[in-house]
Amino acid sequence: MRVLILGSGGREHAIGWKVAKSSLLEELFFGPGNAGTSDIGSNVDLNPMDFSAVEDFVRQNHINMIVVGPEAPLAAGIVRSFCQSQGP
């Protein structure tokens, strides 16, 4: 499984630390991540509020699961954005 965790704080590091222990994990990405997250996955230059850039990264890297750490992208509609882009 290929996982993207959005955010750059301690919450995202803690989630990533646990996800990294899964035997199902193939690759772990953090967008944008921080110095600590780079020890357990790959930090990528993503703004969690730039939904189209996040979607492009997800498609190009065959991401199977996205974990959204910060509340701002959730409140701004990142889930709705992904659901609408999937189509019927």
Present the secondary structure layout.
Elements: E1 2-7, H1 10-19, E2 27-32, E3 42-43, H2 51-60, E4 65-68, H3 71-76, H4 78-86
Parallel strand pairs: 1-2, 1-4, 2-3
Molecular structure report:
With 88 residues, the chain is of the alpha/beta class. The protein has a domain at 1-37 and 52-67: Rossmann fold (3-Layer(aba) Sandwich). It has helices at 10-19, 51-60, 71-76, 78-86, and strands at 2-7, 27-32, 42-43, 65-68. A 4-stranded parallel β-sheet has the order 3-2-1-4. The protein is globular, with a radius of gyration of 12 Å.
Keywords:
alpha/beta; four-stranded parallel sheet; Rossmann fold; globular; 88 residues; single chain
Please sum up the structure shown.
By secondary structure, the protein is α/β, with parallel strands linked by helices. The protein has helices at 10-19, 51-60, 71-76, 78-86; strands at 2-7, 27-32, 42-43, 65-68.
Strand residues, percent? 15-25%
Q: Give the averaged pLDDT, no decimals.
A: 95
Spatial shape: globular
CATH fold descriptor of the domain at 1-37 and 52-67: Rossmann fold
- Can you write the helix and strand succession as a string? EHEEHEHH
**Classification by helices and strands:** alpha/beta
Largest sheet: 4 strands, parallel
**Unreliable stretches, pLDDT < 50, 5 or more residues?**
none
Number of strands: 4
Distance separating the two termini = 24 Å
What is the top-level CATH class of the domain at 1-37 and 52-67? Answer: Alpha Beta
Q: Note the quaternary state here.
A: single chain
